[in-house]
Amino acid sequence: MLFRLFGLLFNRRSRIPDDRDSKIVKPRLEDHPEGYPRIAAFINSDNDTVLFRRFGNLHSRLLLYKEVELTQLESQLAKLDRDDYSKDETRWRVHHSILGESGSQNAERKALVEKIEPQLLSYDNLLLHDEKMRRLCRPTERMHRTFMDYIYTENPFGGDEKDFIFQEEDFVTLQGHEESWLDLFLHRILLHCRKPILRHIFVSKKEQRKSADSHVQYYSDSRLGIAVKVIIALASTALLLIPVYMFVTLNTSPIKVQASITFFFAFIFATSLSGFTTAKRHEIFAATAGYCAVLVVFLGNLQQQNWSKTTQKASPT
Fold first, then answer.
1. Euclidean distance between CA atoms 91 and 10, whole angstroms
2. In the chain, what are the domain boundaries?
3. Could you say which of 171, 181, 205, 236 would form a disulfide bridge with 275 (CB–CB 3.0 to 4.6 Å)?
4. Burial zone of 115 (CB within 10 Å; 0-12 exposed, 13-18 middle, 19+ buried)
5. TM segments (predicted)?
6. Do 264 and 295 meet the contact criterion of CB atoms below 8 Å apart?
7. For the whole model, what pTM was predicted?
8. What's the half-sphere exposure (Cβ side, CA atoms, 13 Å) at 29?
9. Residue 286 contacts residue 300 (beta carbons within 8 Å)
10. Torsions phi, psi of 137, nearest 5?
11. How far apart are CA 77 and CA 71, in angstroms?
12. Is 314 exposed, middle or buried (0-12, 13-18, 19+ CB in 10 A)?
């Protein structure tokens, strides 16, 4: 029974031998013609290169124009309401809908509202789209430099068509997550220290097939993620065991010394958490509070044991 279960778990479904695997598309940058096709393939080739401008100034300019125009229309509608309300023969207009039978005798207000409606919907639509664009992550300097350098070096466009790459502050990335200081540090090491051993570790065969250009470097996101997790795990373990070891070693030290050790390692823990991860402020605060609680409980147990030993020695036999 155990062997049958083992076989069900690890036995892969048998495949009919044919040439289907040879038909799997494995794109390379060089397979695309130079110019727009190859640049589009480069942008799509890696999460770090999916950068696009959000045209923040143009969004703001259009919103500003629409805002001014809607404000003027709003003032016109308010003036019409005041004028109609100030006269007995037209006061009824502010109490009736502009739709239906009363709309024919309220034509000026109806025409003004019909003019406002498409303008307001257009303003709302643009405003919500701009809000969504602003929630997209900004690319790091490393990501923008990689993107800019490739397009600038390849020079695939004619005239000034590549000038958009210099608008660094206007780019957004569709990557979907922010990089921590540790991620940036690892990428910088790989960029400036191109040792064969590092390339063998962090570049899979899939990334190697993407381009034959020696100036284009691809790294495996999954392998970099594993390296970051290992470093974080080692740092977390060290930050927990080192103060515990110091508490045990300095067991007879004054409580002020042990409290200082607790404060120091709590500070190091919070700093490491903010640098090694993309945790938010409330998450860092909660994690640091839990870390301090563990150290304080351990320190309290040590103090209680010392007090018990001192009491036993002081008691008469």
1. 83
2. 55-134, 238-309
3. 181
4. middle
5. 226-248, 260-278, 284-302
6. no
7. 0.67
8. 25
9. no
10. -75, 145
11. 10
12. exposed
Cβ(91)–Cβ(85) under 8 Å?
yes
Q: What is the pLDDT along the chain (317 residues), one digit of tens a residue?
A: 554 554 555 555 566 777 676 677 677 777 778 888 888 988 888 888 899 999 999 999 999 999 999 999 999 988 887 877 666 656 666 656 666 555 566 777 788 888 999 999 999 999 999 999 999 988 888 888 888 988 888 888 877 888 999 999 999 998 766 667 777 777 777 766 666 666 666 666 666 666 656 566 666 677 777 888 888 889 888 988 888 888 888 776 677 888 888 889 999 999 888 887 877 888 888 988 998 888 888 887 777 766 666 665 555 55
Give the contacts of 168 (CB within 8 A, at least 6 positions apart): 141, 144, 148
Give the integer Cα–Cα distance in Å for 48 and 76.
Answer: 50
Q: Which of 147, 222, 139, 235 is nearest to 184 (CA)?
A: 139
